[in-house]
Amino acid sequence: MPELPEVETVARGLRAGILARRLRTVDLLRPSIFHADPALLAALPGAECVAIHRGGKYLVLELQASGGARWHLLAHLGMSGRLCLHPSGAARVPHTHAVFTWDDGRELHFSDPRRFGRLALAPAPASGFAPALAVAPGAEPLEVSEAEFIRRFRARNAPIKNALMNQKLLRGLGNIYADESLFRAGLDPRARRVSRPRLARLRLAIRAVLRQAIAAGGSSISDYVDSDGQPGWFHLRHRVYGRTGQPCRRCATPIRRIVLAGRSAHFCPQCQRR
Prior knowledge:
Layout: H1 4-18, E1 23-28, E2 48-55, E3 58-64, E4 70-76, E5 82-86, E6 96-102, E7 107-111, E8 118-123, H2 146-153, H3 160-164, H4 175-185, H5 196-215, E9 256-260, E10 263-267
Antiparallel strand pairs: 1-6, 2-3, 3-4, 4-8, 5-7, 6-7, 9-10
């Protein structure tokens, strides 16, 4: 599933491509992926894209209609979703579920073979995200302060890997970047009741990993590509994720894989301590 760096990469590409452009038409090809009343889409033609936000793994286009009303159009990429810009009349790949055509003729295609992604639309509030979009309420990893991060995770008795992936605590992290951050912080994914100094170190590791991954365009392990259809390359720099049995890049100990709450966790048993 695309995580924060992948969604941020798509958001930056779309800002460069459609910000300040007007939406000409909306073609909803599979209504089941639209988690709102399809009749709402009638308000969008002619609307200007005035902002593009990211909240964790969610992408939100803010659109202002000619009458002044503002809308939040949400996209969640699910497991295999893509939002790609194409020239006018470009062929639609299989499993293209929605097409947004802009005033310069370019088309934004939303495709998703596995259909876990979704689109939604709601009136934009004065600030924040429209509650109807159900954007995860957790803190943003690149913005949360040290004190707030420690407050959220200090008293938790769950394995730290599970806590990091709880979108109500911290939004945007999934398997890949939780594993990579825990390695860089030297923390075993099974650790519980983590001390304040170790949590402070973990927060810095998360920020560093996410920034590096964004700079690399994300991790293209399976289906992910950016808004121009280009893969990222941060997966080439993974130190533990997906490297089961391979030598640790730091100490050469074989990387282990375990299952926590039904999800994989990759770590170095030598470099990462409980």
